[in-house]
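Technical note accompanying the year-one report. For the benefit of new consortium partners, we illustrate the data format agreed upon in the data management plan: each record pairs a sequence with a structure-token string. No post-processing was applied to the example shown here.
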Amino acid sequence: MATLGPVFCRVVRTAQSELSDIDEVKSIIDKVLERWPTAGGFVIVHHGAPVPSAPVRRASSRMFEAYGDRLVMCHVMLGLGFWASAARVATIAITGLMGNPAPIETSVEAGAQRLATELIGIDPAKLVALHDDLLARMTTSGASVA
């Protein structure tokens, strides 16, 4: 994970999301909200990433719901076929319970543009570059989630 101004970016590739990941995301959002009135979440999930377990989905929903209008999210699902369908269903389940479902895009560029329209002053090209940097570091280090 990394931040760019009021936006946190999380790239998910191959590791199963755990409850401890939710705590880490919450900590980052809380730090962003200490400085900015609204935080943005840019979550990019690469093809083949495991669908979060039911307890992780419930914990995510509760955590995101608590922020209300102070959190603007955009998810990007980079994949096709059954995996992409299952990933979308899991994301809809997580965000739908918040009462304000987050958009789901199918390219990093479209997701960055969508989030930039919600958070004035965010440069979508910088969000794309942040994703690319995180992905490159993950690939180099062999990490699954950053």
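Partners are asked to follow this layout when depositing records. The chain has one domain: 2-141.
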